[in-house]
Amino acid sequence: MKRILLVDDHSIVRDGLRNLIELENDLQVTGEAASGAEAIQLVRKNTFDAMVLDISMPDKNGVDTLHELKHVAPQLPVLVLSGYAEDQYALNLMRNGCKGYLSKNADSDEIILAIRTVAAGKRYISAELAELMTNELSHPSEKQLHETLSDREFQVFVKLATGQTPTAIADELFISIKTVSTYRSRILEKMAMKSNADLTYYAIKYGLLN
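Structure for Response regulator transcription factor, as requested:
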């Protein structure tokens, strides 16, 4: 029996996923969290075979949660089940540790298949994600600007785009304000932009914010 941790700030989504999973003989929901911080606490105290993680959550979003899991439970497979389409976040997150990425619009059979695959320690590549990966290999120069950022740069980018101050970002990520400023400079250079307002406009345009 594979033990699954559900992480989503919407109880109705967790209820739906739990009801779906409970129909399967080989899967069991043994933990639920409404935030990234709560999920990290559960992972520290319990053993799970897979985490199903949303991106958009209060206090610690899915990107931050995935990054912290690298240090807390690096072997825990994570399936990101998100309201964002694959072309917005998937490639970045797959590069940085998640085992699979699936839109919440996927049908129930595919969601179960993805959870089962990830819980078995394998990668789950949806048809949409496979096409994105193929396009990236065939046309590497056609990456979106945010896809050129490193894991940490992408974290800082999202926070800057939402209007967080360097001080708040430094506190959340446990780094210095000077380091945040360094990341900001790199991000602006890589994305050929001049200000935080440019980052916000870009993030809204590509659906990277709530």
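Strands lie at 2-7, 27-33, 50-53, 78-82, 100-103.
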